[in-house]
Each structure stands twice: as C-alpha cells, then as structure tokens.
Amino acid sequence: MAVYTDITEVELGTFLRDYDIGELLSYKGIAEGTENSNFILHTGGPGGGGTFILTLYEKRVARADLPFFLGLMEHLARRGVSCPLPVRRSDGEVIGELAGRPAAVITFLEGMWPRRPTPAHCRAVGEALARLHVAGADFPLVRPNALSLPGWRALWDGCRARADEVEAGVGAEVAADFAALEAAWPRALPEGVIHADLFPDNVFFLGERLSGLIDFYFACNDFLAYDVATCLNAWCFERDHAFNLTKGTALLAGYQSVRPLTPAEAGALPLLARGSALRFMLTRLYDWLHGPDGALVRKRDPLEYVRKLRFHRAIASAAEYGLKQP
Amino acid sequence: MAVYTDITEVELGTFLRDYDIGELLSYKGIAEGTENSNFILHTGGPGGGGTFILTLYEKRVARADLPFFLGLMEHLARRGVSCPLPVRRSDGEVIGELAGRPAAVITFLEGMWPRRPTPAHCRAVGEALARLHVAGADFPLVRPNALSLPGWRALWDGCRARADEVEAGVGAEVAADFAALEAAWPRALPEGVIHADLFPDNVFFLGERLSGLIDFYFACNDFLAYDVATCLNAWCFERDHAFNLTKGTALLAGYQSVRPLTPAEAGALPLLARGSALRFMLTRLYDWLHGPDGALVRKRDPLEYVRKLRFHRAIASAAEYGLKQP
C-alpha cells in the first residue's frame, strides 16, 4: 500500500485548474502501487466530469523517464490497447508538478485484478500482451531496460554477501545462474516495447473479460519474448509453487493467437524465464535485505522466486511450459 | 492509513449479490480511517449504479455497537443531516459478513476534508454539530460513552507510570487534572447523541459549503456540550498550538444559530474542554506507549493535547473561547 505524500484540497484544486476535467468533488489516497502515491479523484460540473487517477511520482521513478511512460500509455490507448490515458493539461503537457513532485492525471479504468487467476484469465493476458507488443512497434521513444543482465549483476553485488540469510546455499545457486545466463543470454531476438511488470495486480478484468492494463512504470525496450517469460512467472504458478501447465498453455496460446513466437524466441524461452525469475528474486532480495523494518511497503518473499529459478533450470524446451509450435 | 484486510474480487462479488446496487465494476482500498478497512466501490448496470464505501469492521469496533452506529447514520440522513446512508441488503439488514468480519456498504459522499480549516469552515461545522444534536434527539438506541471519565481513568492506569516519557512532569500534571475533573464534572447537562470525534478529517466540504459528516464509530450518548468542547479542541487551535479566537467565535456562533447553549452548558464549557483534551491526550498517549513500532497507523503526538490541557486549565469562562451569550 502506498500513499507517501498527503496533499491539501487547496493545492490540488489549484493544480487541477490547468486541466479541463471539471470541478474537484473528492479525492482519496488509494492503497495500490508500491512506487508512487495514487489518489482517486471525482470531478463534476457543467463540462462533465468523471473519475481519474492522480499519481505523484516518488523518488523511485526518474523524472526523465516520465515522457516515455506517459507517452507509451497515450500511444497504446490510441491503438486500441485498453490502458489509462494521460489527461493533457491546457498547455498541452501531461506532466505537472504537485507537492514538489512530478504529477499526472490519468483516466480511471474499471475492472478488478484477479486474486486467483484462472486459465481464461491467463489466455486473455497472453493475448493482451501480444497486442501491446504489436501496438508498441511504432512507438518512437526508447528506454533501455535498466533491469536486464547488467542491472541484475549490480543488484547482486549489493546482496550476494548476505544471500544465504534467505536460505543456506542460495548464494552459490545464484552465482551459477549468473554464469549460465551470462554465457548463453540471447543477442538477437525480436525487440520492442515491453511492459516488464505484467503481474496480476496490473491487469484488470470484468469477469473473465480483460478490461485493461495498468502501471507502465517499468516499461522499456527489450526482447518481446522476455515479457512472455515474465508473464509465465507471474501468472502460471500456484500458491504451492507448482507450475500449472494448463495456465501456461492458455497464456502462450493467447499470445500466439495474435503474435506467434519465432523458433528462436521459443528456443530461448526457458533461459528467458530463468532470467526473469532471477530478476524478480533479486529485487525482492534487495528490498528484503535493505528495506526498512516495518515499512509501509510490504516485503515480498524472495524465496518464491528462488523456487521458480530452480524450476526453470530443469526445463529443456518451451513445450514444457505448454507452447504449441504454430 | 488503513487497509487491514484484502478481499478477493470473487468473494466481494458474491457478497454484493445480497445488495441491489448493480454489478461490481471496481474496488480500491483507501487510505482513510484508522479503525477499519475501507474500500471505494464502483458499480453499474441496467438498474443504475454508483459509488459506495465498503467498510470491514476490524477488531477495535465491537460488533454489538454496529446497529447503533449504522442505525444512527440512517436516522440522521432521514432527518436531513448529510451523512453516509447505509445500504440495506435484500434481507433488510445493513450488516453483512465478508472475509470473516462484519461489513457494511454505505453511500459515497462527495467533498474534501479541510487540511487548513478557516473560520467559515468552523462556523459551518458548529451549525452541523447542532443540527446533528437536534436530529439525534429522537434516536431510540443508546450507547454509553466508553471514553468518559471512568474510561479515561482506566486508560490512565495503563499509562501513568510512563507518562513522563512524553515530557518530564506530565504525570503529575495529569494527576491534578483527574482530581479537578472528578471533583467538578457536571452531572446534569442536556444529554443526547454525540458524534464524539468530529475532527476535520470527518467533515467534508465543497469549497466552504459543508457537504457531509462521516465516521460515526465513536458516536454515543453524553452531554451535548461535551461534543462542542471536542470541536473547539479539534478545529480552533493553530499548528503552533495557539487557540484562534476568531475560529472559536465562529464555531460557537454557528452552533448557537441552531441550538443555543444553556447557561449551565456555557458555564461548564471550560471544564468539558479540559476533559475532552484529556481524553484525546490519553488515547494518543496510550497508542504512543503501546502501539507497535513502525505500525501502519501513524502515531499522533500526545504532547499536542498536553498543550491544549494547559490552555484550558487557565480558562475562566466560555467567553474566552468566543461564546456570546444569546
């Protein structure tokens, strides 16, 4: 949960005078997102009104990256991907400043993220991910993935000495993962804009119909298939840490119904999934070792991703995730 | 901030089938209230829909008190006091059960609580408090004030040994307050239903127009003038701890424009204000000494109310708060 910055109704009212969204009727801090402060706004008045999300970007999001994130949402929304649309101010900008922080107003998406995803949800998210990749192909801005192999190495340097605090032997295991990944990481797969964090809490549904994707604040340019690998990690494991082949099959079939994976992508999928598991293990480990005790941000267990790493190490081909060659 | 319990979209959808408010479109935990878990709901569909607040009552609210709190909101709303209206289930009840907790759906009130109250806000809150007292006169349920003198004594017994941790000498000061209050506490002032916690974050405004009162979870039966005294403490002191006579005058004039204080109430006001300051000092002190470190609920400084206690000790008559005799 996250509301790091309180704002007064007076400063918010002043801030919103630069937008054509009506009069402010209410705002409430919402307990979602772990990086920024988010508020749900209601507006009304003769020019209409509605529900919006106000985001104050806290220090973990670099101001220089905001044009990429917000521009991407606008680009995708225009191409029919259901995602929040940044609202332009009367001066044409989408980024303002509030309480000393960069701030943006985006449209509100109805829908709920699935606490217990079903195979139907997985299929829908696979389809939506592929549509995002296709729609992002002509997005002109570029943002390298800060959390790719070199970034993982930097995180690891800050954790490795204490990694065995999580479980004895984890340090040696992960060192071996680094050796394997650095030796074999692909160099020439199809690249483009990826979401990079498409976990269930970033995908809204109304029933089993996907109503939208949110939280583009890790989006970047990288291998498209790496995004598929992250979704396998995020959507297709059960609470007991077992991989669910039905969900994997559904997610991959959904993806391929829009954008079939190339043979090279299919071949790389086990390594990409192992790399993606390492990436989430490392950020969790880092927060777990370095985060303040009793912080407002709940710490996620790095062990969950140590288990996923072990799973992917044993995978020989993407067929084991449920991939059917087209 | 407070969201103690997460709920799944499936259990919430099932829960809402007992209400006639349309299909669930979204829900978000909101960072308001310190006692319960609150969610903002959007619903829609052919039968209409709208915005609602879902409250899950956590352990600090006694289930046996819920009919009083929710019944009072319904009673007041029917008499024109703007406050949330509990939504009845199809079986006629207003209390359901969700995630193992009592739960209620109430209507959403637009408006914002004033971070920096003005004299106009104070006048409006005085008027609204008096209207609440008048409208509550025929409410049939009774709930004794658990946080009156005997309750303060119990809190104090759990704190006095460590009170000087707040500031040297506080223990002796407060012991003298208890002696003075127990000797002189009024026995026969007009009684009725009081809000008992009408702080700025429980009063919504659209501009300077009061749009509603919320959070009736401390409401009880007690001296009406005690509620006025609490509002003086809650609304009429500045951040530098100085009493603002303009605000006190406005609040009391607003109250008296609807319900003039009796001479006995006016005479008792300094003692009631001292008692009310003691009450909030004690609950803050208790939480400060006993709350978990780094808890999600922000600890409020008991010293603010030690300073208010010192102020009220020196008040000879309610005229010093700005009371004009009618």
Q: What is the overall silhouette of chain A?
A: globular
| Oligomeric category | homodimer
Gyration radius of chain A, in Å: 20 Å
Termini Cα gap of chain A: 42 Å
- How is the CATH topology of the largest domain in chain A named? Aminoglycoside 3'-phosphotransferase, Chain: A, domain 2
| Largest two-chain interface | A-B, 36 and 36 residues
CATH H-level superfamily title of the largest domain in chain A: Aminoglycoside phosphotransferase (APH), C-terminal lobe
Explain the overall architecture:
Two copies of one chain form a homodimer. The first copy, chain A, is an alpha+beta fold. Helices cover 39% and strands 15% of the residues of chain A. The first copy, chain A, has two domains: 99 residues, Phosphorylase Kinase, domain 1, CATH 3.30.200; 203 residues, Aminoglycoside 3'-phosphotransferase, Chain: A, domain 2. The first copy, chain A, has a five-stranded antiparallel sheet with strand order 1-2-3-5-4, with helices on one face. In chain A, strands 6-9 form a two-stranded antiparallel sheet. A two-stranded antiparallel sheet of chain A has the order 7-8. In chain A, helix 6 packs antiparallel against helix 7 and helix 6 crosses helix 8. Chain A is globular, with a radius of gyration of 20 Å. The mean pLDDT of chain A is 93.
